[in-house]
Amino acid sequence: MSAPKKVVLAYSGGLDTSIILKWLQTEYNCEVVTFTADLGQGEELDPARKKAELLGIKPENIHIEDVREEFVRDFVFPMFRANAVYEGLYLLGTSIARPLISKRLVEIAAECGADAVAHGATGKGNDQVRFELAAYALNPDIKVIAPWREWDLTSRTRLLDFAEKNQIPIATDKRGEAPFSVDANLLHTSSEGKVLEDPAVAAPDYVYQRTVHPEDAPNTPEFIEITYKKGDPVAINGKAHSPAELLTALNEYGGKHGIGRLDLVEGRFVGMKSRGIYETPGGTIMLEAHRGIESITLDRGAAHLKDELMPKYAELIYNGFWFSPEREMLQALIDRSQEFVAGTVRLKLYKGSVQTVGRWSDFSLYSEQHVTFEDDQGAYDQKDAAGFIKINALRLRLLAMRDRQGQ
Known about the structure:
Number of helices: 12
Radius of gyration: 25 Å
Number of strands: 14
Mean pLDDT: 95
Distance between the termini: 71 Å
Number of domains: 3
Structural class: alpha/beta
Low-confidence stretches: none
Helix content: 40-55%
CATH topology of the largest domain: Rossmann fold
Strand order of the largest sheet: 3-2-1-4-5
């Protein structure tokens, strides 16, 4: 690959991406443009601007954008319409943020005439795959630089030495070994590494940042109502919210009640297993609520087909194929199923759990007259069930007759 002339870097303002910024300048002698996304990670982003300026980046080459609404509306909500869960447990909080970051990297590169983008993901993880698959899907000619796969700064000591040599500010707690690594956005927090690397050892309670311990949550349950339209939540307790506002509010409810904690050993796309601690308070509530409203508005056949396709859909997102034709095909099917997924769900929040306790909709398929144990006034003729059972039993009876003859 020829040396890039101008690179757009996914920049957090932290030590690692600051080292990458300086390394790009020294290694390639190229102009660097930074992009910092406000995904709701809960951190002040102005320090990222100041640090980029300190490292010689021109003000016009520093991009800091609030993308929370786009993140929830165009990425989180479509994923939750599918009830996507990876390996039965993980709500894909990190996975779903990467395609949006890559999208903006590629767009900014086009706007400013850059010929490359760069990220700070390591060569051991999934994020390198997610960033790069998305970038190539959106611009097949883009160059992608992954410093962790190229440089010789293979230890914390070498990284700190490089930082000191190049006058990159180092926080005092960075001089030792960090206890664990954290990635956060409006949907979740993810903690990995160091004190979490032995899956046999329980995670220290200080790892959890968004949720109280369920045992310390309020002793009185709280009830909330979420209203849905076309498969997306639009209001809480009758009050309308924008997508990002709604997820923020649900995070507060979930965090207060200790909802959404997960200790997971997962199978990475690159082949190894890793242990992570995830907190997805609002997302856990949304998943329960969406299943609750689908239970009365979605036909059995459509619901069961969605459940069959969901693991594939979740795997595509986890593996970085958000912009693939197969994910988009599945999304079209999923979105078609959500036309009448509208109504309200009542939920009970209590000590780490969320439970649907009521649901109603103008498009409900639930017919009390048909299922009642009382007089249904002729709505359902129970004699019809005999023929239904006999037809479905025919092949089983023929198999049993054959097997009996064989014996």
